[in-house]
Design goal:
This protein is mostly helical. It folds into two domains: 180 residues, MFS general substrate transporter like domains (Growth Hormone, Chain: A), CATH 1.20.1250.20; 190 residues, Growth Hormone, Chain: A (Up-down Bundle). Helix 9 runs antiparallel to helix 10 and helix 9 packs across helix 16.
Length: 431
């Protein structure tokens, strides 16, 4: 359990590092004499770092997983330090890029480690506990960063996150059990899983389905104020409520995925989210109805996280590092596409409620890809995964038994040597 808590600590840090910049743009703009649009490049720099950093996963397959994730968190901490001391916006962009490099790697490695150190059949719950750190960052970390920027300086949150990075490093070093290494069959072998259709079906589901929900999330403020009719002062508390919904739904979906199957849980979450988005389009102008429906739809975004990560891992045997990297790229590009497509109807002059239709449409396509995965591949990959897990646990048990036998043999040898020494000493004295 302590190992999962350490991973959750890391997810919290990375969550704050990613999302906090959204509330700091006015402070960047003021300090460096920029417009808001230019300050927004700090968000893009982080996202670019996420995509580039995935390359790390391809060349570290021989490293112990614990060592690898410690390297990743160290890179994050360096990025926080550079951001905190940056004296120009160019340095801020570089620091944000460096901060983004380890983001996808952490969640990819964390997913594999969480699966390995969890009890058999509890992988989704373990994944959800790790991701709970990220959802907590939305509820607490991001508002904290904005408050510190308002009261002191935008640099304060990055100083705090530097210290938090050290806490994460110590926690992982002390609490994380040794997860071992991945089986290494050569560089190109780790790409063999891409010959099957299953990872593409799951990846497309993440790309379009999650991107659809993020489409709504990107324009949540104007939808709430201009369509639902929420006063501007109430938006912040509603956003916090959405973060709480993400946290709760993430933990619930993890337990459901352990009880049923990750693919089926993902499918039903998608369906419920689509229903909420469409209902919000037709009846969201009734304030309480709109708030409840959009809060639920926001919760779905992280409710999908754990089950989807498990599905990606199960469909990438022998290439787990590449598989989780593939999932992270699909998620981030999906978010970018979703945000872009959500802005199209607004540019054409339609009301903010039109974003809900775009969001639901993308989610529908993502749901169809997940349904195809369930019908064509999930059962076989699930059986294969549990067979490999049982084999790995059996090998670990045999290794542990062999160590016990070797230790006992060494103890007996030491005892025999002591007896022989005592006998020899007695013989010498008797002479």
């Amino acid at each position: 359990m302590k190992g999962l808590i350490a991973l959750a600590f890391g997810a919290l840090g990375f969550g704050v590092g990613e999302f906090v910049a959204m509330g700091l743009l006015p402070y960047f703009a003021h300090d460096f004499d920029l417009d808001i649009a230019t300050a927004g490049h700090s968000i893009s720099a982080y996202a670019l770092g996420v995509c580039v950093g995935i390359v790390y996963m391809m060349f570290t397959r021989k490293l112990n997983l614990k060592v690898s994730i410690l390297i990743v968190v160290s890179c994050y901490t360096v990025g926080m330090v550079l951001t905190a001391v940056a004296q120009s916006f160019a340095v801020v962009l570089l620091a944000r890029f460096i901060s983004g490099l380890p983001h996808g790697c952490f969640f990819g490695l964390g997913a594999i480690i969480a699966m390995r150190i969890s009890a058999a059949g509890k992988g989704s719950s373990a994944m959800a506990l790790m991701l709970a750190g990220q959802t907590t960052s939305i509820v607490c970390g991001v508002p904290l960063g904005t408050a510190l920027a308002h009261s002191f300086s935008w640099r304060a949150i990055f100083v705090l996150m530097t210290a938090w990075g050290v806490v994460v490093l110590v926690s992982l070093w002390r609490w994380l059990p040794n997860p071992g290494k991945l089986e290494d069959h050569g560089f190109w072998h780790q790409f063999n899983f891409l010959k099957d259709k299953a990872p593409y079906l799951v990846g497309c589901s993440i790309f379009l389905g999650n991107g659809g929900i993020f489409c709504m999330q990107s324009y949540v403020s104007p939808i709430l104020t201009d369509f639902v009719g929420v006063p501007l002062g109430m938006v912040a508390p509603i956003l916090i409520a959405m973060g709480v919904a993400m946290t709760v739904y993430n933990l619930i979906s993890g337990r459901l995925a352990d009880k049923y199957s990750p693919g089926k849980v993902t499918f039903w979450i998608f369906l419920s989210c689509i229903a909420a988005l469409l209902a919000a389009y037709f009846w969201g102008d009734i304030m309480i109805v709109g708030i409840v429906l959009m809060t639920y739809a926001s919760g779905c975004l992280f409710g999908l996280g754990g089950p989807q990560q498990v599905s990606i891992l199960r469909t990438s045997p022998g290439g787990e590092l590449i598989g989780v990297a593939f999932g992270q790229v699909a998620f981030n590009f999906g978010n970018a596409i979703g945000a872009f497509l959500g802005g199209v109807p607004l540019e054409l002059g339609y009301g903010p409620e039109s974003v809900l239709l775009v969001s639901a449409g993308l989610a529908v396509v993502g749901t169809l890809f997940m349904l195809a995965y369930i019908l064509l591949s999930e059962q076989s990959f699930t059986e294969r995964f549990f067979a490999a897990q049982a084999q790995r646990l059996a090998a670990a048990h045999q290794e542990a038994q062999a160590e016990v036998v070797a230790a006992e043999a060494a103890r007996q040898a030491d005892h025999a040597s002591e007896v022989a020494q005592v006998s020899a000493e007695q013989a010498r004295v008797s002479k």
